[in-house]
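Summary for the funding panel

The consortium committed to producing paired sequence-structure records for every protein in the target list. Below we show the first two records in order, beginning with the earlier of the two.
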Amino acid sequence: MLRSVFLLFTMLFVSEGFLFAQKGTGKLYRIDRYESIYLPLGKISFADTLIEYKVGSPPPIQKYRDSVQCLHEPNYKNYQTPNFLSLGCGGSLTVEFTDNGFMNLPGDDLYLFEVGPSKEPAKVEISQNGIDWIYAGKIAGGKSSLDLTKEGIDDETVFYFLRITDLKDLCKSKSAGADIDAIGAINSVIKLTINADVLFDVAKYELKENAKQGLDSLWKTIQKVNKATILVEGHTDSEGDEASNMTLSENRCISVKDRLIEIFGENPLYEFEIKPYGESKPRVPNDTEDNKQRNRRVEITVLPPKDYYESLSRD
C-alpha cells in the first residue's frame, strides 16, 4: 500500500496519554483504578484511522456507535459517557495505524482498551497491507494485552492494520459486544524504506549531496519520538560477489548512521545500531532491473529505547 511520499523517499510508516507524564516520549495510561500500562513511544502508538465498522446483531444502542471513539488515546470516563465504541454481538472493527506500525518484539506487543462493566471477549487479527490477515490472539476483555510471539508471528514484519471481532459471549446489554476505547501498540515503531539509488552512486557508499539534504529532512519524522533506538539496515541486489555486497551494505549503513548523528548531535536519548544484510534479504527476486532496484535499499527503523527492554528482562 502506498504511503506518504517524502522528497525522494518512499516512507513506510511504522512507532502522550492523559495521565502520568514520563521523561521522554513514553507514557503511562490508566487501565483501571489501580493499574496502568506503559507505551514506550507514547501518543503516536495508537490506531489513527477507521477502515470499517460492522455493527453486530443485536446492535448496541445508538449513542454507543460513534466509530471514531475507538481511535487515538484512551479517554474512557464511565459507562454512561459514550466515549467508546461498542461492536454489537458478533460485530467487527478494522483500524489503521498511519504514523506508526507495530512489530513482534520482546514482551507484550498490543494493548486493547476494552472498557465498560462487562468483560467481553473478542478475536484479534492483524495485517501488513489490509488485505492479508493473520490471527493474533483472543482478548478476554478488560485488561487486554497481546504477545504476538505466542501466535508464532515473525519478528521482522511491520503491521499497520488491526481487526477486532466480538465473540458473542455477552449480547444483552445496552452496549452489546466488546466496548473499545482505544487500540495501542506497545511495541510501536516507525519504519522508513529508502531506495539506495537515491542515496548512493552505483557500488559507492559515500552519500550524494542531495541525499544528505533528504536525510536532514527526516528529522521532522523521527523527532516525534525523543527517546529511541534507531536501527539502520542495508541491503543490496545480487550483482557482484556476496562478500563485496556485505561490505558495501555495511559501509552504506555507516554513512547513513553518521549523517543522522550529525543531524541529531551526540544526543544520549538516541542510540544507533547498524545491521548490514548484503544480498541475503531481497524483497523480490533479482531477475529484472526494476526488481534489483527495489532490493537496493536502506531501512531506518525507530524502535522503543533499549532501557525499556532491559526493564522487561529485569522483571
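The next record, for a separate protein in the list, is shown here:
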Amino acid sequence: MTGKARARAEGATILAAFEAAGAQPVEADILQPADTLLDLYGEDIRARAYVTADPLRGELMLRPDFTVPVVQMHMADGAEPARYCYLGEVFRKQEHRGARAAEYLQVGYEVFDRVDPVAADAEVFALFARLLAPLGLTPATGDIGILLAAVRGLSTTGRRKAALLRHVWRPKRFKALLDRFGGRVPVPESRAALLAGLAAGTRPDPGAPLIGLRTEAEIDARLAALAEDAAAPPVSAEEVGLLDDILDLAAPAPAALAHLRDLARALPAIAPAVERLAARLDALDARGIGVDTLAFEASHGRTTLEYYDGFVFSFHADRPGLPPVASGGRYDALTAVLGQGRSIPAVGGVIRPGLVADLGGLGPC
C-alpha cells in the first residue's frame, strides 16, 4: 500500500469514528474564492496558499483548510446544534524543502453549539485524545481568548489596542508594537522625523504626486493617526509586564489557572476568560482527561491560522521537526464574520492521517 493509500485508509477510519460521535459528513470545493480568504487573513495568506485564476470565477486558492468553507456552509443553512466531519486534501505552500508536505490529507470534526461552549471544547479535545491514545502523543493546550482579553483591557488608545489585536498571530510584530507602545524602544528615526514635521505643522512633501491606491484624504487620516499615537502616553510598565507574564506562561493547567487568577486581580479584563478556563478544566476532568499534568501555554496557537479566539490544542509526536499530528480550537468570531450578522459558538479540530499512518496507525477505533 502506498503512503497516500495508507493515509486515506487511516483517514477513513477516523472519519467513521467522527460519524459515530454524531457528526454529519460534508464536502468542500478544492478551489476556494480568494476574496473570502484575503478578507479574513489579508495579503499574508498568499505566502502560504496556492493562487490561481479562473476567467469566470476570478482569483481562486487551493483549499488551505476546511474550516472556512464548513463555517460558510453552516451559516448559510445549517441547523443548530450541528456536528460536521470531513476528509480531504489541503494545500500549504512551503518556502523551503523539508519534512512538511505541501499537499496532505486532513480529517476534521467541527461542533456548532451555543448551549454549552465549554462542554463542546471538552467534547472535541476528549474525542481526539481517545482516538489518538494508541500513538502516545503529547497534548498541549492554550487559550487565545485570555491574551485577546488582556489586550482589550489595556489603558491605552483604541488604535493601539486594534494594532496589537491585529498582530496577535504574528508574535515578532506583536512584541515590537508592545515594546514601542510601552516606551521600551525608541520611535524609528524616519517616523520621529515625520512626527517632528507634523508637530511643526508641516505636511511631508506637499507637492509630491500621489502614488499608489491611497487618496489624499486617506493619507491625511493616516498622518492624523500617527500624530494621535505620538501624543498618547506609553502603556504603563505594570500593564506591559502583565502582558509579558501572560505571554511567557507555560505550566501544568492547574498551576497556570492559579497564576492567571492572580494576574486577574491586577488586570480584571481577563477574569471572565480565566474562569472559562477553570470551567473547561472541570469539563475535561469529567471526561477522564488528566488535567493535573495537562500542559498549558498562554501563547499556544499564535502561529496558526488567524481564526482561533479561545481554547486551542494540539497533539505532538516525539519526533523532531514533525508538525502537530492534530490541532484545533475555538473560532466564535469567524462565524460572526462569515455569518453576515449571525454568529454561533464553534470549536473543532483536524487530524493529519498521513502522520498517523507514519507513526504506526490507530488500529480499530
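Regarding this second record: The longest helix spans residues 3-20. The chain has a mean pLDDT of 88.
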